[in-house]
Write a structure and sequence with these properties.
By secondary structure, the chain is mainly beta. The protein has four domains: about 130 residues, Immunoglobulins (Immunoglobulin-like, Sandwich); about 220 residues, no CATH class; about 100 residues, Immunoglobulins (Immunoglobulin-like, Sandwich), CATH 2.60.40.10; about 200 residues, Jelly Rolls (Sandwich). About 5% of the residues lie in helices and about 40% in strands. It is built from three helices and 48 strands. The strands form nine sheets. Strands 10, 11, 13, 14, 16, 18, 21, 23 and 24 form a nine-stranded antiparallel β-sheet that branches. The protein has a six-stranded antiparallel β-sheet with strand order 12-15-22-17-20-19, with no helix packed on it. A six-stranded antiparallel β-sheet has the order 35-36-39-46-42-43. The longest helix is centred in the C-terminal third of the chain and has 10 residues. The protein starts with about 35 loop residues before the first strand and ends with a strand. The N terminus is likely disordered.
């Protein structure tokens, strides 16, 4: 059946094509302009016509007239308007009972400025095109992208939440690129659905865990394209209502993309007739709408439901959201749909600001064990898709920093550090808190509480032990400067210590006298310090084997029964677990003959120290005695034995420099006693 109704917008709004050259004007006298909205450069009526209404606004008084051969069939009112006033103009055509197309021209004029522009008017004959038979509101195609959540890449499992594309755990990103290496499985779903995406070298179309699409990265904009609207009746035209949810990219620091718009295009048959977004513009050929996208409120994102009307689409038509461009216009899209509209539809629904999504949050845990009485620090994680506030219940528990990875922009910490306010990004934040020293003789606890939208979403209880006064007198009885062994001034005692080690000679403690470090090893053992490419807090022995050992001892000890001696801050390491000794015994003696085992060590990786700190209680009083501690190889060497066995600072990770000698000492190995 042939349906004869209004076809509107066959050709899109030209710049109101014919314009007379304006007279020279002064800077105070603006150039004449007439803006038309709701109509394009050409209006086309069906034979059975419906009125067309559009709006006209000029910056000077204006008039219009209808011209052409026999234009009595076309009535346009009103025929004038005042400066800076928006006027609704209605064009009404009589039914065309003839087969021939008839035409007319609407000319808009600003006479005083010698300015004019034209709108062409066509009316089809009574044998117009066939239109799709589906009823208004019939959905030809829709896509909500929920399948992204269901098929989220496993390697991103730890950083799946959040709006912004930043690292949340130092390893993974909270988004992925369609078409990029490593995402073939989930990209295949995109292809199976007939969805197009940016396949250039930029790969600027991204999937987000919550089930939506990000268009663009840095200085490139991406796109996603619908499949062909095959549900439209074959050989017919259809007027379409295109809807989508849009939001602007906003970084965790609150900075939005430089260009606040999306470009929506018709691929194939059809033209865009209207867009419901204020200040949206349509290209002259009717193929692309440039649609503003803004954000507002206390949140870094808000979804807006947008609508545009596409005329004369066919079963081959596709809709593209976004456009590959080399600029910063990143944004998000979700919930795309294409539905049937009436042929006479000439306006699109206005933007609809969508409600915020349901509150979604998660918090981490803190240790249930009490922290020591001394001052300390800890961390806690919080994620929420709302702005949130964290508060401490006690002055001794303060909030030092809140950060998303390293980004602290937009976060406000109170002057007393008992609370902090964080904007809503949906990303995982780390809360860094500090605990003051407990000087009371009773333990204590305090709460960190997080609230969002007026409700509590999590809490952490931080416990601290009571202060306990030392029961004995602690004294350092031997102490070696460790990094100081490697200063470059060979005239110093420390440089002589390094030379002594390389020669296989014992090393006396230099900061506090009384201690000796020596090595008992096979004849193949070779001594060295750290190389120019290694950290300089290690003394090394190559080719150690079963029964070989490092020995520390301290002389001149006078201790009572139940006094305590401690060995502190030393670690055992190896350069390679496959080429040396892995298993060791830590043991001590008060006479050099009878040994007590304190630990078994199995090294787990190259250059990873294992603590050899030891504490021993004196069983019988000693006078001017010696305490021995040795680390003994408990297996045959692995491989060719070329790995270095090393005594090093236990907290080796504190050392940053590896290619230069230390000019200042920062760490020590020492013996201490506690007497009662």
């Amino acid at each position: 059946m042939k349906i004869s109704k209004l076809i509107f917008g066959v050709f899109m709004a030209a710049a109101l094509a014919l314009s007379c050259k304006p007279e020279t004007i002064t800077p105070e006298d603006p150039a004449p302009e007439i803006k038309v909205t709701g109509a394009t450069g050409t209006i086309t009526f069906q034979a059975e016509a419906f009125p067309v209404t559009f709006k006209v606004k000029g910056n000077y008084d204006w008039t219009l007239e209808v011209s052409g051969t026999n234009t009595s069939w076309l009535d346009v009112t009103p025929a004038s308007g005042k400066a800076d006033e928006e006027v609704s103009v209605t064009a009404t055509a009589e039914d065309n009972t003839e087969a021939e197309v008839r035409t007319a021209t609407i000319t808009l004029k600003i006479a005083d400025k010698n300015y004019s522009s034209e709108i062409k008017v066509n009316q089809l004959g009574k044998e117009g095109p066939d239109y799709d038979s589906h009823t208004k509101g019939h959905v030809f195609w829709s896509e909500d992208f929920n399948w992204i959540t269901e098929n989220w890449p496993a390697k991103h499992a730890n950083s799946k939440y959040g709006w912004i594309s930043v690292k949340t755990d130092g390893t993974n990103y909270n988004e992925f690129q369609f078409g990029a290496a490593g995402y073939e499985d989930i990209t295949a779903i995109m292809t199976e659905k007939g969805l197009g995406y940016d396949t250039s070298d930029q790969f600027a179309t991204y999937g987000k865990y919550e089930g939506f699409i990000k268009l663009g990265k840095s200085k490139w904009v991406g796109y996603v394209t619908s499949p062909a609207i095959e549900g439209i009746d074959e050989g017919t035209l259809a007027t379409l209502e295109v809807k989508w949810d849009a939001s602007l990219y906003v970084a965790a620091n609150g900075n939005a993309s430089a260009n606040h718009y999306q470009k929506i295009s018709v691929i194939g048959d059809g033209t865009i007739a209207a867009c419901g977004t204020e200040n949206a513009t349509i290209s002259e050929d009717g193929k692309t709408a440039t649609v503003p996208v803004l954000y507002e409120g206390e949140y870094l994102w808000r979804w807006v439901r947008k609508t545009l009307i596409v005329k004369d689409a066919t079963a081959a038509t596709k809709i593209q959201f976004g456009m590959l461009e080399n600029l910063d216009a990143r944004s998000f899209v979700d919930n795309l749909s294409v539905a049937r509209a009436d042929e006479e539809t000439t306006t699109a629904a206005a933007d609809e600001l969508l409600p915020l999504p349901t509150l979604d949050s998660a918090v981490g845990t803190v240790s249930e064990e009490a922290m020591g009485a001394e001052a300390g620090a800890g961390t806690w994680t919080v994620r929420a898709n709302r702005g949130w506030k964290i508060e401490s219940s006690a002055e001794w528990l303060t909030i030092d920093k809140v950060a998303c990875n390293t980004d602290v922009n937009g976060i406000t910490i109170a002057e007393n550090k008992l609370s902090a306010d964080v904007p809503a990004t949906g990303l995982i934040y780390k809360v860094y808190y500090k605990v003051a020293a407990n000087e009371a003789t009773s333990p204590r606890e305090a709460k960190l509480t997080v609230t969002a939208d007026g409700q509590q979403i999590g809490e952490a209880i931080v416990k601290q032990a009571a202060y306990v006064a030392p029961a004995g007198v602690v004294k350092t009885v031997a102490k070696w400067s460790w990094t100081g062994l490697y200063q470059t001034n060979e005239n110093t005692v420390l440089a002589e210590m390094a030379k002594a080690w390389i020669a296989g000679q014992p090393i006396n403690s230099d900061v506090v006298a009384g201690g000796v470090l020596s090595v008992t090893a096979n004849a193949n053992a070779a001594f060295s310090t750290g190389t120019t490419t290694q950290k300089k807090d290690r003394l090394r022995v190559q080719k150690m084997n079963l029964g070989d050992y490092f020995e520390f001892k301290v002389n001149g000890l006078t201790l009572k029964k139940n006094d305590i001696i401690r060995f502190k801050n030393a670690g055992l390491g190896t350069t390679a677990i496959t080429k040396g000794v892995v298993k060791w015994i830590v043991e001590y003696s008060f006479d050099g003959s009878n040994w007590t085992q304190s630990a078994e060590i199995e090294l787990t990786g190259g250059n990873k120290p294992f603590s050899i700190e030891t504490e021993a209680t004196v069983q019988e009083a000693i006078n001017n005695g010696t305490f021995y501690l040795r680390v003994r190889a408990n297996e045959e060497t692995q491989g060719d034995g070329s790995a270095m066995s090393m005594i090093m600072i236990n907290d080796d990770g504190n050392v940053a420099e590896i290619n230069t000698y230390y000019t200042e000492d920062w760490a020590f190995i020492y013996f201490e006693t506690e007497t009662f």
